[in-house]
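[Q] Does anyone have a clean structure-token version of this?
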Amino acid sequence: MINSAVSSSSENNSQSNQPKLRSQVKFHPGQNSVMYFFDSKTIDPEVDDVFWIVKWINKKLFAGDKCNYLIRRIEERKSRGLVNPKVLVVDRGDSSSFHKTGCPERISALIGRQNHYLAVRNLVQNRNYGCLSMTQPTCFDDNKPFRDLYGEPWDYSQLPFAKHIRNGCIAKVDFPVRESLQSRIQDRLDQLKASTLSDIQTKDVGHFWKIERNDKYGQLRNRVTEAIQDLIENSDITGTAGLVSNRGKVGRISVADKYVDGLIGHKIIVVAQRDHWEGHLRLMEALISGALVMTDPVMHLPAGYTNGVNIVVYDSLADLKEKIKYYLSPEGSVLRKKIAQQGKQLALEHHKPEDMYRRLIFGHWPRNWSSPVINLI
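[A] Here you go.
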């Protein structure tokens, strides 16, 4: 994505042959915004490339402030006769907001569209899982294919802002591995001193969501919890279908021991997304647990993930139940362990925060709005 090499202050042993990122110098223009600054001149005096990564948090109150701050910094740089920076905006909000602010047009007017990159988490529209509502169901059926409900790729190509970003395309960005959780998982495994995963994975299946009948964004998760509860109550399958620790912001900013034990204590972890958008923290959290991870259909799986190879996709509630049974059977257990191991390995080697930014900076930028995932590098 950029021509010059960028160094790193920390070595990633599993990727020593890949481009390195230097330490971030952080600017805090206002609440809920962070700017990361990369300057390759410290490596090669002949190179004048400067790269900024702006973390765009979906808070409308600060949207204008962040854009104005960014524009001022670009103008300051230009006034000093320096080359234009390359600017990557990373919008990981549930509902993307950056493209609605008028900021893409302002940035490209200063630095040119080919120097302006946009990465977004949610690139799906018309998801309809809300029709699975437990209070007023309009489409509920155990055999209802989820692929009829999960929407379609967002075709933004005709919207005005697309003319102001590189290649007219947005790259897909996913939540990376939470390194604090990874560290706690490893500490817990070391503490248990178990020789094999089977010594730790004492339960069959876990889905960590408490049914909340009126949750307007959680009806899919409600139904998945309901399905797994039915399996546990009416078969010899063991597991957890409910919360094991705090949810919401408390669960996001802290790591609970009960959550760690829940992740490493099950052979299969089932995750489900919110009803109206795609992408969530729970996916990578589950993948680093060592369990087989089963997910509802995802329009754009994270880089490197393939159904049946390192993750398993269930296409309906009935399909979920059948796949749980299969991967717990003697016939399916060998494959379950292989898929789980490959899913964890890929997450740890290629989906840490530094890996995510490395792909965005050094990867081949999308040229087609329907294929936004940057391949592993």
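[Q] Thanks! Anything notable?
[A] The two ends are 12 Å apart (CA to CA).
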